[in-house]
Write a structure and sequence with these properties.
Pfam families: Methyltransf_25 (PF13649). By secondary structure, the protein is an alpha/beta fold. The chain has one domain: Vaccinia Virus protein VP39 (Rossmann fold), CATH 3.40.50.150. Helix content is 40%, strand content 23%. The protein contains 11 helices and 10 strands. The strands form 2 sheets. Strands 3, 4, 5, 6, 7, 8, 9 and 10 form an 8-stranded mixed beta sheet that branches. Strands 1-2 form a two-stranded antiparallel ribbon. Helix 5 links the parallel strand 3 and strand 4. The chain binds S-adenosylmethionine. The site of S-adenosylmethionine (SAM) has 19 residues, from strand 4. The site of S-adenosylmethionine has 19 residues, from strand 4.
Length: 298
């Protein structure tokens, strides 16, 4: 599936200065109840869309919950924090009998040329979502580690996912953590990233904790967990090269907050991130991804 060409992103409007803020040339949200620190501009939408094919390759598909048959026959799926919407668009094309909805706070949702079975709405999951209880057979969420504090996972997001899932339906999450490397600059950047995230109540290793958070709810009859260690860099193949690009892009998209938090000038930050890329090809650099699927009790 191609990236973004047929999309028109939300254009600047009067009042955008209230909704968004520009820092070091990148656009960020301005919501008071969200800790999300990654840019929400076209460059970020491109980064998210570009990683889609590599994710399919790494995980052998777009989901692991056993909902294939239901998708063929016709059901409803929601993707929370859908970003550029590419996951929804891909599935909507594969399963024309099913209906898909993507929600996100960022104004990067696709608005044109949508298939009739895909819909996108700008919502904040932390405010609760305007969908009825038990209305989806698959409630999906991916790469929200930088968006949801551990308390918000427990008190808002997981309960909301459970509310939206049908009895015997599935909720599924895929998360990554911070990079680990032998490179000294990469270590410094990863440490700064860790300090910054924890200062906001965000747990960089939440992916590993999600099965426990799911178990604590007592809402599931079955929980499936998978874990992958992803080596980064060209020398490990195409998906590893894309994973590195995705990660480096994430660091670039976080510049507005991370450069300030590291107390470095924006141009010095760019040079540090360049070095992280170079170190990844030289030393062992990896991150983890965690996928969890849970079946809601009947
Ligand atoms: C790293 S991106 C991942 C996007 C998409 N899931 C993917 O895998 O490509 C995180 C997304 O979560 C969205 N997000 C952050 N906080 C949110 C919130 N409170 N409610 C809804 N979406 C949110 C961001 O706008 C961003 O698009």
């Amino acid at each position: 599936m191609g990236c973004c060409c047929s999309r028109r992103y939300f254009e600047a409007e009067a009042g955008d200065a209230i909704k968004y803020r520009l820092i070091h040339g990148r656009r960020y949200h301005n919501l008071s109840n969200s800790m999300y620190f990654v840019a929400n501009d076209d460059e970020e939408a491109y980064r998210l869309s570009r990683y889609h094919d590599a994710i399919k390759d790494i995980w052998g598909g777009l989901f692991n919950s056993p909902v294939e048959e239901k998708l063929r026959q016709g059901t409803r799926v929601i993707d929370i924090g859908c970003g550029s919407g590419i996951w929804i668009l891909d599935l909507a094309q594969q399963y024309p009998n099913s209906n898909f909805v993507g929600i996100d706070i960022s104004p990067i949702l696709p608005t044109e040329g949508l298939p009739p079975n895909a819909k996108f709405v700008q919502y904040n999951v932390l405010d609760g979502l305007p969908f009825e209880d038990s209305s989806f057979d698959l409630v999906h969420l991916k790469f929200m580690v930088g968006a949801i504090t551990e308390t918000q996972w427990e008190e808002k997001v997981i309960p909301e996912m459970i509310r939206l899932a049908r009895p015997d339906g599935w909720i599924e999450s895929l998360e990554c953590d911070l990079i680990t490397s032998n490179g000294s600059v990469t270590k410094r950047v990863a440490k700064a990233f860790h300090v910054f995230m924890t200062s906001k109540g965000l747990n960089p290793a939440i992916g590993k904790e999600i099965p426990r958070l799911f178990e604590n709810t007592n809402a599931f009859s079955e929980i499936r967990k998978e874990h992958k260690v992803l080596n980064l860099g060209k020398k490990h193949g195409k998906s590893a090269e894309e994973s590195l690009k995705f990660y480096i892009g994430g660091l670039k998209s976080s510049k507005g907050f991370l450069a300030n938090s590291m107390n470095v000038m924006p141009e010095h930050y760019d040079a540090l991130i360049e070095t992280v890329t170079i170190e990844a090809e030289k030393y062992s650099t990896y991150f983890n991804q965690y996928r969890v699927c849970a079946r809601k009790k009947i």
